[in-house]
Amino acid sequence: MNWIIEAKKRAASRAVDQIESGMVLGIGSGTTTAEAIKIIGQKLKNGYLSDIIGVPTSYHSIQEAVKSGIPLTTLDEHPQLDLGIDGADQIDSNLNAIKGHGGAMLREKIVASCCNRYILIVDETKQANTLGTSQEVYLEVHPFSIKPVLNKIIKMGAKARVRQAAHKFGPVVTDNGNNLIDALFGPIDDPRKLNGQLHSVQGLIETGLFIGYADTAFIGTEFDVHEIKTKF
Predict the structure, then answer these.
(1) How far apart are CA 190 and CA 94, in angstroms?
(2) Would the N or C end of the chain have less CB density within 10 A of its end CB?
């Protein structure tokens, strides 16, 4: 579906339109955010934006930002961010989201919590009436606790597995040195409640449930971009 690539670009472009010169940005991870990074870099090069610096959420976003000529900083230097832009694996109408297929959700959530505004950019295939519908929840777990956490997640009713690496033996290792569990709970009626239950499991460091962070989403369709704002 080639239109999805163009839909991602359209959503990314609308999000970048929200950036003003002098802003400190939270730079997310993933393929749609990579499109936004390219557009930001082009606007800096052409002089449409200036004095932009960003806090990246993964090694991949660092590489993309450097390639695009975006100056980078850290949360130590800028603990409060003007605007964050990131993708998502699934979003609902309240702009709650599941993120983390790329394994960067811990840093993504830290950055999201530091943003004055937080925008999600997706193509329309990522929309769902209920989070968790045909979509796993991604969990970052300390390697020391991987088996007991896995057992507890299964007891909570999920079909869960430790994510294995594609190009090396053993599990995926995140940028933070942790492992990932992919857990399919099915449709999640109360994502905030589930997020709290998951955080009660010792050794589980972070979940891919992003509840109440985004204020705006730009959703790329085959021919257009839809904007959704939170109802609260």
Answers:
(1) 12
(2) C
In the chain, list all ranges with CATH 3.40.50.1360: 2-126+211-222
Residue 93 near residue 126 (C-beta atoms within 8 A): no
For the stretch 96-152, pLDDT in tens is 999 999 999 999 999 999 999 999 999 999 999 999 999 999 999 999 999 999 999
124 given a catalytic annotation: no
The model's pTM = 0.95
57 backbone dihedrals φ, ψ, rounded to 5°: -110, 0
The architecture that CATH gives domain 2-126+211-222 is 3-Layer(aba) Sandwich (3.40)
Taking the CA of residue 75 as centre, how many other CA atoms within 13 Å lie in the half-sphere pointing to its CB? Answer: 14
Give span(s): CATH 3.30.70.260, the chain.
137-206
Among residues 70, 64, 82, 85, the alpha carbon closest in space to that of 16 is found at: 85
User: What's the rounded Cα separation, in Å, for the pair 30 and 117?
Assistant: 19
- Please state the length of the chain: 232
C-alpha of 69 from chain center:
22
- Which residue of the set 35, 108, 140, 206 is catalytic? 108
CATH code matching the domain that covers 137-206, chosen among 3.90.1170.20, 1.10.580.10, 2.60.40.10, 3.30.70.260: 3.30.70.260
